[in-house]
Design a protein that fits this description.
The protein is α/β, with parallel strands linked by helices. The chain is about 50% helix and about 15% strand.
Amino acid sequence: MTEARPAMWLVEDDDTRIYLLGTMHALPAGTEWDRGQIARAIADADELILELSPEQLAAAGGVFRNLAPRKAPLAIDKRLAGPALARYRQLEASGTGQPFGGDALDDWAVMVAMGQRVAQNARLLPANGVETRLTERFRDDRKPVGGLETAQEQLMLFETLDPATQRTLLARAAEGAGDAVQEVATLTDAWSRGDVAVLERMINEDVVAVPAARAAIITDRNRRWSAWVVRRMDRPGTLLVAVGAGHLVGADGLPALLEAQGLKVIRIQ
């Protein structure tokens, strides 16, 4: 068993409390993270809000299959070259060795397939992830579980990235594929310690060099979600909002954006 203490914040006024928990969507078996202040938040909250509701998460596979194919196949060796291509092939041959089918996929969808293989190689499973376990807890307690986005909205963030940005992201992912399992382990360890400085550095390394991707995948979403929190503060109640840990760190993370709008935000774990 591994005991984790991920970072969590509380936004509150006289009649509304909103916990903000940074999640890992997949974790190793035996990771215990739902103790301490998180256990209190789970017990206190009237409702759980995730990036995707359980219904939208169930629909995501079908949305992916609809959006991911290219209009015309393009061989991976026409998109990648040198070390990037070699590391892509090594990752494809690892684990189950099941081919990614990348020739038929958009660049962003190839990255999704690569990310799934890295998670498998690192023995990270969505079934052990924070969202899965939170959903089970809230449903067992007959408390509602909602979402901030639809599966279509979320995947269209990638589908609508311009081709040059998609190609840059794919090349960077392929170039780093050899170290990806260790990088994921380091990221998971930082999350477990609540080390937001390391989380911010590692997440920024992934996207800060690609401004269009950072805006679409992180910054713009954080602004929409912070506006949602501000509106929700007008109604009484207690909520637990659990989104990917990368959305809660740095100057454009949710806690910082909400504090800048005059809300009372404190880190409680």
